Each structure stands twice: as structure tokens, then as C-alpha cells.
Amino acid sequence: MKRLLITGAAGGLGRVMRQLLAPMAEVVRLSDVADLGEAAPNEELMPCDLGDEAAVMRLVAGCDGIVHFGGISTEKAFGPILNANIQGVYNLYEAARAHGQPRIVFASSNHVVGFYPQTERLTAADPMRPDGLYGVSKCFGEAMAHMYFDKFGQETAIVRIGSCFPEPNSHRMLSTWFSAEDFAALIGRVFAVPTLGCPTVWGVSDNKEVWWDNTAAAFLGWTPRDSSEKFRARIAAEGPKPGPADPQTRWQGGAFAAAPIAKDDNA
């Protein structure tokens, strides 16, 4: 690609992907409301509030592809989620429609299905069961992606990210862990296939115990290579698995399913 846009590039995942995705485009345009640091030789920095429609329109101009990590990435009060994850997603899709419909990777979340028990194995066709306001906002983003595809032909890969951290840090994450390298390889396939459509892909590595079936996304030609199994002994040594009534063991969304509704940004 000539220009790849990464939103949310100052976040934990964005900082890692900024490096891993650098070879995919002549120029990588990075955006966030937080400090983006210094630009590398093939980077350009464009700070942007996703809730600002005019700013997002400028941000998307000239881009051949979009990796959308931007927005609130955890449970928060509704105000910040509304601006970044709902208004921001609308602004992004309208900007993409106005600028040639570059293919989009939309970072959704396992929290759109967080109220399923861990005993169930899900496909992308199973109904959403969000576990909080953050999960609801990702349901909205997925719905926007499908509507823009059906109405305008805007292609999006909806990636329901499990737990994309350097290492899993809990028994639950042994099932949900998604290595950054596996994610980068998936993004590469999203932009490589001749026809994408609007698939939903479970963002999870090749872990021993997973709850999600990616058969419907097999056409992408992506096979995760990493596994959480190499971390199992460490996790076990740090403490026993919580009992079956604990949210971390009961629900696919873990603690999010038991979190209260925040009433302000500090809650």
C-alpha cells in the first residue's frame, strides 16, 4: 500500500503494531489523541479526536487501508465511549466512504460475547451477548461495518480480539491470548486477499483450549502460529484457577461481566 492508517497508535497494541505493520506500506499514518512520540522515516503523525467529524475526514484522506484500534479499549463511563467508540466509528466509516472506501480492519472485542459461559464454543454467527458498555460499543461498531458493506460495499474485517498482550496473565487468558505476531499476520492476509467482504474473525492464537471457531474465516488463508501453552506452567505456579462461580472462570468476558456500570470517567 502507499499509505496505511493506524488509529489508536499510541495505545499498547498500537505501539506494537506500529512496528510490525511498518513494512506493509510506503507511509504509515499514525493517529491518536495521546502522544505519538517521534515519527520513524516512513511514518507521519496526525493527532485526531475520533469524535471530530471534520478531523477524521482529513485523517482518512489519501489512505489505502485502515487499521482501526482507536477509541476506548476498556470499560468506562458512557460519555467517553459515546464519543470515541460510537460517534468515532460513524465518523470513520463516513470518511472511508468519502475517500474511496479503503479496506478496514476493525478491532472489535471478545466482550461482544462476554456473557457466554466458557463451556460454550461459539461461531461468528452466534448472537452477541455483550458484558458491558464497552462491549455494547463494539457491537455497534460491528453493526456499522455490516451496514456499510451491505449498503455501500465497504469491506471490513471485524476482528474480535481476545487478549492481545505480550503474555497471558491469568488462567482465562490461556484461552483468549492473541499474540501480536499472529495479529499482524492476520492483518497482512486481510489486505492481501482479492475479495474480503465483511467477515468476523476471532482474534486468538493457536491455544490448546479456545472457545471460538474460525472456520468461516478460513478463506483468508491465515493460520495462527503462537500458543499460550508455553505459559501454562507459569500461570499455574502463580495460583490456582478460580472456582466455577468466579466471573474469571464462569464467563467468556471474565471480570467485565461482573463490573458495575461506571457513572463517570473516574469510576
What key attributes describe this structure?
267 residues; Rossmann fold; seven-stranded parallel beta sheet; globular
Task: Tell me what you see in this structure.
By secondary structure, this protein is an alpha/beta fold. The chain has one domain (3-258): Rossmann fold (3-Layer(aba) Sandwich), CATH 3.40.50.720. Helix content is 32%, strand content 13%. It contains eight helices and seven strands, in the order βαββαβαβαβααβαα. The protein has helices spanning 12-20, 53-60, 78-98, 133-152, 173-176, 180-192, 232-238, 247-250; strands at residues 3-7, 27-31, 43-45, 65-68, 103-109, 156-161, 200-203. The protein has a seven-stranded parallel β-sheet with strand order 3-2-1-4-5-6-7, with helices on both faces. The longest helix is centred in the N-terminal third of the chain and has 21 residues, at 78-98. The N and C termini lie far apart (41 Å). The model has no long low-confidence stretch (mean pLDDT 97).
